[in-house]
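Below: protein 1.
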Amino acid sequence: MNILAFFPAVIKSTRSLWHFGQTILGIIFRHPITGTSIISILPDGRIVLIRRSDDGLWALPGGMVDWGEDVTSAVRRELMEETGLELVKIRRLVGVYSAPDRDPRIHSICIVVEADVQGEMKIQDSLEVLEIQAFPAISLPKPQMSHDHKQQLQDYFDGLTTLD
């Protein structure tokens, strides 16, 4: 039996445990958790969305900023973890969303950016992501989206920089 075969599972398990621990610390200390959402634009102009495994809804890729990590690094990491895509460039800040009920799990502050991305879409974290798909801006999925991502996309299309 090859011991190296266990490392990816251990790393994934450790990362999940760390995210759980961060959530618990946020609850204990009663401070919001900082996260990111990425409006990921492929070279052909399509927008990348993921279907979340926890609620089955379409969402923007993103997640929590880890301890000791800056927002740009979190954007790069979360994008790769959830979609397999590489960050080329952050174009602009779309907004900062902080409504206490925007995330049904915890009080989180979400920094939303528009970013140029490249590469091959491939699910890296099957515990969080059921599906990845790229949509032309005019044909994004119409049903309810996870969290407040529908509002984040609307603010993006309206050209706003939102502080909410």
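Below: protein 2.
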Amino acid sequence: MHFQWYPGHMTKAKRMMQENMKLIDLVIELVDARIPISSRNPEIDELGRSKARVILLNKSDLAQDRLNDEWTKYFREKGYSVIKVNSRKGGGIKSIQGVIQEACKEKIERDQRRGILNRPVRAMVVGIPNVGKSTFINALAGKACTKTGNKPGVTKGKQWIRLNKNVELLDTPGILWPKFEDQTVGLRLALIGSIKEEILNVEELAGELISFMKANYAGILAKKYGINEEDDDFECLKSIAKSRHCLVRGSVLDTEKAARLLLDDFRNGRIDKITLEFPGDYE
């Protein structure tokens, strides 16, 4: 498959982020635990290089536990604070506040030396589409959060959310998109649902998933769908269509429907805990 996805507004988004960077102490970056590198916006490290950094491995419940631990170690060795979270169910959310305080320890101590007491840590939450940023903000803020209004110098419409007396979040939804040239990155983003399916061939995409599963998680598709993994990828897809009664006109196999079913099962963790990229590939 060839992925052509260069969204517009990158320049505008980068400029907005640069302006907001002046106002914050910490960048909280959400990545998808199944593709922790491919789901990172390459602009973040450059723009946030002078700020404290926290990486959240979101949707960690959908990824392999062992690989979640390996990715945590990988990022910590590069100087990031890292937390495994499951924003949808609240997993790991309670530990966020402590990690924020630890990540900004130097800033807090510097404020205290200057006689500045009780100034909250200001954090910007960033993440690519479909990585769960809004769900995370809602889970972290809960019902107790209050919008504190626009701060001087903030781009109009940006809202600060006061979590408590110690932390304020800058909510800047939907402005950061990855720009990629590596087709493997495009494939992985498509598999987790970060690229609109209208521009994709879902049968080819499902075939790529089947190929990856057979190579890295042998036996799991056979167990889930009762197929023969020795068959080629499209035959496997046809077998999934047959086992799940994906039919058109009575008896013709509907492989497009089967492809959508397979992708939906993967994205929602109904096949197994699956990680699509491994730390060893990036060392």
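Residues 146-157 have pLDDT under 50 and may be disordered.
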